[in-house]
Amino acid sequence: MQIHWRNPGVLEDAVRTAAEERILKLAGDRNDLIDIWIDVAREAHHRHGAESVTIRCQARGAELVAHGRDAQTRLALRDALRAFAREVKDLRARRTDRRVERPATPPLRGVVDRVLHEEGYGFVLTEGGEQVYFHRNAVGDGLSFEDLAEGQSVTLNVEPGEEGPQATVVARALPGAG
Known about the structure:
By secondary structure, the protein is an alpha+beta fold. The chain folds into 2 domains: 2-101, Double Stranded RNA Binding Domain, CATH 3.30.160.100; 108-172, CATH 2.40.50.140. The chain has helices at residues 13-27, 73-101, and strands at residues 2-6, 33-43, 50-59, 62-70, 108-116, 121-126, 131-135, 153-161, 164-172. The strands form 2 sheets. Strands 5-6-7-9-8 form a 5-stranded mixed beta barrel. Helix 1 (13-27) packs parallel to helix 2. The radius of gyration is 21 Å and the shape is elongated.
């Protein structure tokens, strides 16, 4: 995980360090938070001016955004960090809920239709003729994304995605099945 600052000039080094430590503690030993940008800005449209802090985080499968606003920059940062902690907690709760609902083994069978190794994704053609998108992070059960080849038999879990069906798990095909 990387933390990037934009326009942090008005914040003392100690305040920035404390904010980064809080984010690292929030991340813990998980790897779901990828990149974090902390934007510090003065909002001119307020009568007396206000400091605004926006935290944007690219997380696995989501983008989190949290805002803080106050007359003092460090207080705006504090508010943004609190909102960000709530966003991370909510994201993790949603993921936990979805994992509980998923079946233990992938129910569908298919064949790898295309793999775009450099882009990190590919497509599986199911037995029913449906083309399903998958990301490299969905590949598991001893399979290696780098070693996937067109025509290889796999099993998969599918859920609706933003642009059509998406595999949440792509696993090794069971021997003798089908």
